[in-house]
Amino acid sequence: MKKLIYLILVPAVLAGCSTKPHYVVNGRINGADSVTFLLQKSDGGKLVTLDSAVANKGSFRMQGGPVKYPEMVMLTAKNSRMRTRFYLENSDITITGKLDSLFNAKITGSATQDQYQEFVDSNKPLTEKYAKLYADYQLASQSNDTAKVARIEKQADSIQNEMTSLQKVFIKNNPKSFVVPSLLSGLSYQLEADEIEGLINALDTSVANTQTVRDLKERVSKMKAVSVGQKAPDFTLNDPEGKPVSLSSKIGSKLLLIDFWAGWCGPCRRENPNVVKVYNEYHKKGFDIIGVSLDQTRDEWVKAIADDKLDWTQVSDLQYWNSAAAKLYAVSAIPANFLLDQSGTIIGRNLRGDDLTNKVKEVLGK
Asked: What is the average per-residue pLDDT within 203-220?
């Protein structure tokens, strides 16, 4: 009897071990014999390798886990630019494709990936239009056709607004989907803090507890600290001669614009003539600017200042997107700006073109 019970228990134990949540990634990549593949994910801005395998005649297998929740990862052919992204979860996942077009590989076995692909496919007409506009934009920029560039930017903004609307609809209709965190993260660069917070609060608890959403909550907190009506937080950065300049030392003008830009930023450089025009017209009436550059080299920064005739205070720590001031002000895209009144209170954000002109005129033009 004891032997019979033992024989019954052993298969049960083995079955229990084999059903423990885990992932399996099977690769079938043509042209990839003896190629090492890396399974990686982004963590704090750095790529972390989760697993690796060497392909035998294009086939490889990775197994691990469990993963806490479905998460976007990347399969990369080592020492190359060949890669594809997909949602990793505790399931049997198969990746089929060719090495020279790995980005286009077919992914099966991940329910989250299926949901993501369905969303991507539904957006395909818009993304194709946007891609064509981008190609036209590059040609127009190269030929210095400013009128065409302006028309294309307007069309692109319209398409971007449609894409944004579709993403919002998906997020609202799928509060339990693990596709939502990455979509919401990308969308957050276009939304105000209150709207991001509203979308987060409507999510299922399991999705809201992902690292991406937790990071978004932290970003929302920073955005609220620099929203209209808040006192602008102080910072100190060096000017081109290495002299430290604090924001507080500039506050006191009737209006002060904190202008985040960079010499490598095309949209910033195209906006600069408008900023120069407003500065020249209203500086004597109490309008001042402190420019915060996200450049990486002093030479590029100083050349752009001279070329664009930016005759106001400029500061930078030359740390690119790691700029201390940019992080403090939750700046994740440039150009970006904050308009302060005489007391240092933020009264406007991201005012460009006519919006900047009209706001300055409203306050100082009387």
From this structure: 93
